[in-house]
TrEMBL record:
Signal peptide: none annotated. It comes from the Eukaryota. This is CCHC-type domain-containing protein. One of its GO terms (molecular function) is zinc ion binding. Residues 71-85 form the CCHC-type domain. SUPFAM superfamilies: Retrovirus zinc finger-like domains (SSF57756). InterPro entries: At4g02000-like, Zn_knuckle_CX2CX4HX4C, Znf_CCHC, Znf_CCHC_sf. Keywords: Metal-binding, Zinc, Zinc-finger. PROSITE patterns: ZF_CCHC.
Length: 119
């Protein structure tokens, strides 16, 4: 993917601030790292469909770095499931939630180094 596509994705998520790119101007590996200013009153985006032309469509799954606690039921930052006022009791008690810890990125890249999660 290109930086241009990265900016388009970032602007669909919120306000694109930066797209990390390699020396050749392309994005790094199979991941695209985009810094975005998000509206935290809205649910986190889990996936996005992109259509490149009439026959090619891609589904992108998102992961977030430095993600604080958020509600696995409604996807909003600022509270957890047991404090959620957005969804009802049935959704709170459901075993499978639409959001989860899988939205946390396992790795953070910053200042030229890779940081692996603590074990």
């Amino acid at each position: 993917m290109t930086v241009t596509i990265g900016r388009q994705i970032g602007n669909r998520l919120g306000q694109c601030i930066d797209v990390m790119e390699g020396a050749d101007g392309e994005c790094l590996g199979r991941y695209l790292r985009i810094r975005v200013r998000l509206d935290v009153t809205k649910p986190l985006r889990r996936v996005m469909k992109l259509q490149f032309d009439h026959s090619l469509e891609a589904v992108i799954e998102f992961k977030y770095e430095r993600l604080p606690d958020f509600c696995y039921a409604c996807g909003r930052i600022g509270h957890v499931v047991k404090e959620c006022k957005v969804v009802g009791a049935i959704e709170k008690e459901a075993k499978e939630k639409p959001y989860g810890s899988w939205l946390h990125s396992k790795f953070e890249v910053g200042r030229g180094r890779t940081i692996s999660p603590r074990k």
